[in-house]
């Protein structure tokens, strides 16, 4: 397994997107270290950043030299239909759709994409419904990648699913979520490796750094295509279960 760590840091608007409280972030410039630009970036928010707003948003990213843009975003990536740039089945879909991949390509060249896993995660692992969902997800993934690469554009990373599987994910136990996600990601990875034998993008999967033993379990669950995984997206805020747990973040 080629090791490539991709640290996800969600930068949300100061008005408190999703109703979350705003946390303080302390930055100590004297302790600065070099950060590889390929693992540093910003999350797009498809729900709030429309086609009209995206050019201004992308200019801000460039001015701040924030690196890789994660598109369509996090949770919304499970719902966005890339062909229509809508999210018709998403209860929180905005009245005005978010920026399309074509708009992203016209304004920003350094981006990664997130492909969905929700359809499989909501099914019992290894059931007929689960296998049907995985088959659909493979085609959705290929369509998203092809659209993201249209016109000779380059995709930096393809992230399979997002941190959502660590939360609700069908309402099952954590261990059930873990094997379901691992196997879903494994099958999608294997399919993408077949479809893109000379791929120029990296494939990354998701994990929770607060539960490090899960990485060994995920590795064991990848009974095929493990060598095709380029790394892990470490989510820094998934080791708790809101609203039950109250955490005071002190990032230094």
Characterize the structure shown.
This protein is of the alpha/beta class and 252 residues long. 29% of the residues lie in helices and 13% in strands. Strands 1-7-6-5-4-3-2 form a 7-stranded parallel β-sheet, with helices on one face. Strand 6 (202-208), helix 6 (213-221) and strand 7 (231-235) form a beta-alpha-beta unit. Helix 4 (128-148) crosses helix 5 and helix 5 (174-195) packs across helix 6. The longest helix has 22 residues, at 174-195. The radius of gyration is 18 Å and the shape is globular. Mean pLDDT is 84; it is low at 1-19 and 242-252.
Break the fold down into its secondary structure elements and pairings:
Layout: E1 5-8, E2 41-43, H1 54-64, E3 68-71, H2 101-107, E4 111-115, H3 118-121, H4 128-148, E5 155-160, H5 174-195, E6 202-208, H6 213-221, E7 231-235
Parallel strand pairs: 1-7, 2-3, 3-4, 4-5, 5-6, 6-7
């Amino acid at each position: 397994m080629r090791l490539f760590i991709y640290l996800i840091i969600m930068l949300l608007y100061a008005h408190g997107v999703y109703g979350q409280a705003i946390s303080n972030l302390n930055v100590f410039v004297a302790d600065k270290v070099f950060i590889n630009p390929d693992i540093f970036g910003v999350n797009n928010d498809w729900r709030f950043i429309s086609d009209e707003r995206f050019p201004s948003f992308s200019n801000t990213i460039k001015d701040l030299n924030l690196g890789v843009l994660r598109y369509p975003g996090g949770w919304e990536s499970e719902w966005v239909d890339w062909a229509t740039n809508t999210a018709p089945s998403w209860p929180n879909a905005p009245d005005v759709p978010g920026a399309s991949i074509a708009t992203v390509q016209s304004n920003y060249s350094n981006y990664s994409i997130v492909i969905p896993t929700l359809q499989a995660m909501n099914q019992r692992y290894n059931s007929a419904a689960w296998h049907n969902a995985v088959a659909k997800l493979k085609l959705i993934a290929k369509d998203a990648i092809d659209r993201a690469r249209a016109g000779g554009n380059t995709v930096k990373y393809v992230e399979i699913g997002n941190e959502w599987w660590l939360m609700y994910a069908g309402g099952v136990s954590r261990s059930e979520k873990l094997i379901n996600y691992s196997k879903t990601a494994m099958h999608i990875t294997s399919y993408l490796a077949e479809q893109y034998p000379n791929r120029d993008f990296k494939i990354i999967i998701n994990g929770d750094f607060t539960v490090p033993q899960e990485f060994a379990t995920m590795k064991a669950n990848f009974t095929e295509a493990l060598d095709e995984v380029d790394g892990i997206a470490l989510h820094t805020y998934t080791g708790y279960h809101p609203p039950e747990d109250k955490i005071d973040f002190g990032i230094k």
